[in-house]
Write a structure and sequence with these properties.
- With 334 residues, this protein is of the alpha+beta class.
- It has a single domain, classed as Ribosomal Protein S8, Chain: A, domain 1.
- It contains 13 helices and twelve strands.
- Helix 1 packs antiparallel against helix 2 and helix 2 crosses helix 4.
- The two termini are 25 Å apart.
- The protein binds NADPH dihydro-nicotinamide-adenine-dinucleotide phosphate.
- NADPH dihydro-nicotinamide-adenine-dinucleotide phosphate (NDP) binds next to strand 7, helix 6 and helix 12.
Length: 334
């Protein structure tokens, strides 16, 4: 794969310019370009510049409001509702997460119930933003159907990611962020683009047959949940929390209302934050450090989030697929 070297500033500037030239205002482009840059910085390649053409498609079609002004309101001291004004999730987080953090520092536990947002990014930025305030964060969101419930051959669930961050005062939080599909669709698309096969169990082809060819899954096939019926149950939980509980679209409803432009559909997000300081009391961080030391000291174990956090430390330019850069440049002139 031919690549171009871009610094993090160049990645940010490219995303920002492309978004503003396609209808986003400064506030919205800043939030989304920041998310894209952080994804490339951490090596979350399937959620960095790779997504920019789809974001642009949704701006051009008018599905997403590139001038969104999300509004957060308190339903109770522990429940913050956020209306995203049909913008992208990162600009909604800039409003909703500070409101959630403020609430949870008083209540010990709180929910951010987000509606009318378009989410196509990784989820770790929002849970890490919560952990930076020494709070536990958990977030999930549905998408559009691309994954079959265990036993089925047709899609009902989105790839329904769930992310969790555990704060470690003065240290990097421990974070996992994963699709409940055996593999995220972005990764399947990248494998198809790069001509790699995927493990058996990743998905089914259009005839409902198991395949290792990512292009057969991406074109008319379905993904499968990780861990069979267990992952399927967690994907169902994501639908219920981030659609049923926040009162937004289930994945199948999101698809029915979507214009098919390739960008993210309108949907919701469920974010939970908890204060160990209030719930566990003094000594929680030292107690958990003993657990983390025990776990990370075991042969063969690497902590989730470590790969990304190590990537983050590099100040070197990032290698970006040059065909992708060319595609983005055309979006800025065409
Ligand atoms: P991965 O399977 O690559 O990783 C999932 C998690 O497991 C990460 O936290 C990762 O840490 C950790 N991990 C990976 N390998 C190991 C290991 N050997 N030991 C311990 N931990 C490990 O992620 P997915 O492909 O499932 O998801 C990719 C992204 O896609 C996520 O960021 C998700 O939010 C996003 N997504 C977003 C959607 C949306 O609609 N907005 C839909 C679906 C997915 P590390 O990061 O350090 O590698």
């Amino acid at each position: 794969m031919a690549t171009v070297n871009l610094t993090l500033d160049e990645i940010y500037d490219l995303a920002f310019s492309c978004l503003t030239q396609n209808g986003a205002d400064k506030i919205n482009a800043t939030a989304l370009a920041g998310t894209i840059m952080k994804a490339e910085r951490d090596g979350s390649h399937s959620h960095g510049l790779f997504r920019l053409p789809a974001y642009v498609a949704s701006l051009r079609s008018g599905k997403v409001n590139g001038k969104a002004r999300p509004i957060a309101t308190s339903a109770t001291p522990a429940v913050v509702r956020l209306h995203g004004d049909n913008g992208y999730a990162p600009v909604a987080h800039q409003v909703g997460i500070p409101a959630l953090i403020e609430a949870v520092k008083l209540t010990g536990i709180g929910v951010l119930a987000m509606t009318n947002v378009h989410h196509m990014a990784a989820l770790w930025p929002e849970v890490e933003a919560i952990a930076e305030h020494n709070l536990v964060g958990l977030a999930c969101t549905p998408y559009m159907p691309s994954m079959a419930p265990a036993g089925a051959t047709k899609a009902l669930f989105g790839t329904n990611p769930i992310a969790f961050a555990w704060p470690r005062p003065d240290k990097t939080p421990v974070v996992f962020d994963m699709a409940t599909a055996a593999m995220a669709m972005g990764e399947v698309q990248i494998a198809a683009r790069d001509g790699h096969s995927v493990p058996l169990g990743t998905g089914l082809d259009a005839d409902g047959q198991a395949t290792t060819d990512p292009s057969m899954i991406a074109k008319g096939g379905v993904l499968l949940p990780f861990g069979g019926h267990k992952g399927s149950a967690i994907a169902m939980m994501v639908e219920l929390l981030a659609a049923g509980l926040v009162n937004e679209n289930f994945s199948f409803e999101a698809k029915e209302g979507d214009n098919g432009d390739g960008g993210p559909p309108r949907g919701g997000q469920f974010i939970l934050a908890m204060s160990p300081e209030i719930i566990a009391g003094d000594g929680w961080a030292d107690h958990c450090d003993i657990f983390f030391d025990r776990m990370s000291g075991m042969d063969g174990v690497r902590m989730p989030g470590d790969r990304r956090h190590k990537n983050r430390l590099s100040t070197e330019p990032r290698k970006i697929n040059d065909a992708l850069i060319e595609k983005i440049r055309i979006l800025m002139t065409g």
